[in-house]
Design goal:
Elements (H helix, E strand, L loop, with lengths): L9 H10 L4 H10 L8 E4 L3 H14 L9 E5 L26 H9 L2 E6 L33 H8 L5 E6 L5 H6 L3 E4 L19 E6 L2 H11 L12 H9 L8 E4 L10 H16 L3 E4 L8 H16 L17 H12 L2 H13 L5 H25 L2 E5 L15 H5 L6 H6 L3 E11 L2 E10 L5 H12 L1
Parallel strand pairs: 2-3, 2-4, 7-8, 7-9
Antiparallel strand pairs: 1-3, 4-6, 5-6, 5-10, 9-11, 10-11
Helix pairs in contact: 2-3, 7-16, 10-12, 10-13
């Protein structure tokens, strides 16, 4: 059966399965047949995909099918699915099978989703290119010589190359938005606390959020609506009562104002990316949006704040991988040597770098100098955003300063790699939602490469992001 995966949306797939044009099993098989191993988007393809699809077909027969029933979705391999291999892209977890479902997986299972497989990622979601995976590099869907972006590169490529209809990723400093930009699709980083992190392998606990990838804004909204919500298994999730109070104040019918922090866009951006950004602003103007220049006086410090807070949290979160309870274990002469051998062999270079950095930041005499100062500055940056959002409804910046770079071109210089996150980290630092949507293509070596537009909104204003994205893309 020939199914046109390129133009397929969740709604179209649902209607087709409901009308009997094709079954969930035929749809799943079409995606399985389309998996391109050369792109290395998956660490594991699940062996029960067709069984899952068969159960979805039963739901269509007995009338209990929901909108997401039978929809093939790829899951970043740091989100637990019970009984499935979950590696976090690391050697230290290469034989680990999840013992429970992440909350987002429980919600998707209830909806009848078909899980295709676990996608490749930078080890423990640390990186901006998916070059740091213990399972090889994921290649860009537009150019095999270029990176997929990271850390959720596998999920972005799976969707962009029609190996899944949608995907989940996690975003600690841009890990959904940046690969979405590099692969010409959409990626949503949700408000901190809007989606449960229970069952997502922790990196930076005050920064991480799970969110969806898709090729259109309607599919982003459908997946987001399914996975969001308060969760007793994650005490950082926001109370539904408080959320509804804020959401009732959102007026999407009024003429919206867009803020542009031009002072932050003066250096380090490729001129053709900036050209596309200016075209995007003009497009909004034509659609009746008011454009206003804004100041975010301390946004330039976001990257520095992020690279203090994140390694510190990494150092604490990754101490559990010691070979005692789960994962890799290497025997030494004594317990200390067990730890050293297990972690030395199990963790890759970038993970070890961030653990050492974080341990130093939290050590006696340095916690006040670094970590506490970064937390104080985080609050100042948060206040800057709150002030800006009094005058504007959303803020626009490019998602990334460049299109996808060549594989291997930045790996030897961590600072260059860290600068890839310059426009994305601020929304993780302050906890606000942000989305990357395609804004066009730029030429590199005769190849057209996609670049993304990032839209940032106030706390819990995901609906505003969806409205503004819809206007931009239509």
């Amino acid at each position: 059966m020939n199914i046109d995966l390129k133009s397929l949306t969740i709604n179209k797939a649902h209607e087709s399965m409901k009308n009997g044009d094709f079954t969930a099993q035929e749809l799943a098989q079409a995606y399985l047949d389309n998996i391109n191993p050369e792109l290395n988007a998956f660490i594991v393809i699940f062996d029960d995909v067709l069984e899952q699809a068969k159960m979805a077909d039963e739901r269509f027969k007995n009338g209990t099918a929901e909108l997401l029933t039978g929809i093939p979705i790829a899951i970043k391999n740091n989100i637990l699915i019970k009984g499935k291999k979950t590696t976090a892209g690391s050697k230290i977890l290469e034989d680990y099978n999840a013992t429970y479902d992440a909350t987002v997986i429980t919600k998707l299972k209830k909806a009848g989703v078909v899980f295709i497989g676990g996608t490749n990622l930078d080890e423990f979601a640390m990186g901006s290119s998916t070059e740091n995976s213990a399972y090889g590099v994921t290649k860009n869907s537009y150019d095999l010589e270029r990176v997929a972006g990271g850390s959720s590169g596998g999920s972005a490529v799976a969707v962009a190359s029609d190996m899944a209809l949608a995907a989940l990723g996690s975003d600690t400093g841009g890990s959904i938005r940046q690969p979405a930009s590099f692969n010409g699709i959409l990626g949503l980083k949700t408000t901190y606390g809007r989606v449960s992190r229970s069952g997502a392998i922790a990196v930076g606990s005050s920064l991480d959020q799970i969110g969806p990838f898709a090729k259109n804004i309607e599919d982003i909204k459908i997946v987001y609506d399914c996975i969001k919500g308060e969760d007793k298994m994650d005490s950082t999730t926001l109370k539904e009562k408080n959320i509804s109070e804020i959401e009732q104040k959102i007026n999407l019918s009024k003429k919206m104002t867009i803020g542009i922090p031009r002072h932050f866009l003066k250096e380090g951006i490729d001129s053709d990316v900036m050209e596309k950004f200016e075209e995007s602003i003009q497009s909004f103007k034509k659609k009746g949006y008011e454009i206003k220049e804004i100041e975010l006086p301390n946004i330039k410090y976001s990257l520095a704040v992020y690279y203090i807070l994140m390694p510190a949290e990494v150092s604490a979160n990754l101490s559990r991988y010691d070979g005692v309870r789960f994962g890799l274990k290497k025997e030494g002469e004594n317990l200390l040597e067990d730890y050293m051998k297990t972690k030395g062999i199990g963790f890759g270079k970038e993970v070890r770098r961030r653990i050492i950095l974080g341990t130093y930041i939290l050590s006696a005499g340095y916690k006040d100098a670094y970590y506490n100062k970064a937390q104080a500055l985080r609050e100042i940056i948060r206040e800057d955003f709150k002030k800006a959002f009094i005058d504007v409804d959303v803020i626009l910046v490019p998602t990334t300063p460049t299109p996808a770079f060549k594989i291997g071109s930045k790996g030897s210089d961590p600072m260059q790699m860290y600068l890839e996150d310059i426009f994305t980290v601020s929304s993780n630092v302050v906890g606000n939602p942000a989305i990357s949507v395609p804004m066009g293509f730029v030429d590199r070596d005769g190849k057209n490469l996609p670049v993304g537009l990032q839209i940032l909104a106030p706390h819990l204003y995901e609906e505003a992001l969806i409205k503004v994205s819809t206007d931009f893309l239509n």
